[in-house]
């Protein structure tokens, strides 16, 4: 008896998101590691880590997001639920990281120091940086939402039910 089994077709959006995250994951993993190593050297030279501010936390976020996205991208290419979930979480983490970085930058950029040491917040100086930073975060929001689509979930579920590994 001849059996014709057709493997589930990987949705195009899953392929595009996985390939994007393979590239972004490798780049961010290396960038974050070099940022951490550079920060350690600067702390050694300066003797204090106070002036680094939120940069180490940002570098750790880049490393974690890149590693999650890279690991999940290979699983997503095989249509694994764990890979889809990891890439989705990496997208949400990247979106949150870009927004937090943008808000922190806008807070510092919009503050002006007065004559007597007081600082004033001028919202007009924060509008353009906020929209520019937010525009970098939007693609991660779109990818996270597309990974929750019915098409991707059905393809992942079909692969899991068949036991294709």
User: How much helix, percentage-wise, in residues?
Assistant: over 70%
On the 0 to 100 scale, the average pLDDT is: 87
Radius of gyration: 21 Å
Catalogue the unreliable spans: none
Element order: H for helix, E for strand: HHHEEHH
Number of strands: 2
Task: Classify the secondary structure makeup into a structural class.
Answer: mainly alpha
Biggest pleated-sheet summary: 2 strands, antiparallel
Question: What report would you give on this structure?
Answer:
It is a single chain. With 165 residues, this protein is mostly helical. The protein has helices at residues 12-46, 55-77, 81-109, 127-147, 150-162, and strands spanning 111-113, 119-121. Strands 1-2 form a two-stranded antiparallel ribbon. Strand 1 and strand 2 form a beta hairpin. It is elongated, with a radius of gyration of 21 Å. The two termini are 24 Å apart.
Summarize the structure.
With 165 residues, the chain is mainly α. It has helices spanning 12-46, 55-77, 81-109, 127-147, 150-162; strands at 111-113, 119-121. The protein is elongated, with a radius of gyration of 21 Å.
Key descriptive features of the protein:
165 residues, mainly alpha, 2 strands, elongated
């Amino acid at each position: 008896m001849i059996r014709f089994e057709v493997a589930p077709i990987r949705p195009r959006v899953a392929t595009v998101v996985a390939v994007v995250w393979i590239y972004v994951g490798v780049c961010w993993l290396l960038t974050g590691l070099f940022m951490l190593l550079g920060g350690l050297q600067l702390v050694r030279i300066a003797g204090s880590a106070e002036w680094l501010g939120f940069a180490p936390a940002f570098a750790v976020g880049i490393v974690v997001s890149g590693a999650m996205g890279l690991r999940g991208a290979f699983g997503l290419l095989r249509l694994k639920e764990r890979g889809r979930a990891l890439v989705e979480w990496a997208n949400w983490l990247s979106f949150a990281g870009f927004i937090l970085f943008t808000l922190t930058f806008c807070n510092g950029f919009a503050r002006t120091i007065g004559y007597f040491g007081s600082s004033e917040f001028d919202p007009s100086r924060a509008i353009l940086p906020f929209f520019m930073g937010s525009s970098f975060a939007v693609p991660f929001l779109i990818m996270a939402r597309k990974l929750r689509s019915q098409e991707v979930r059905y393809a992942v579920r079909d692969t899991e039910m068949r036991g294709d590994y």
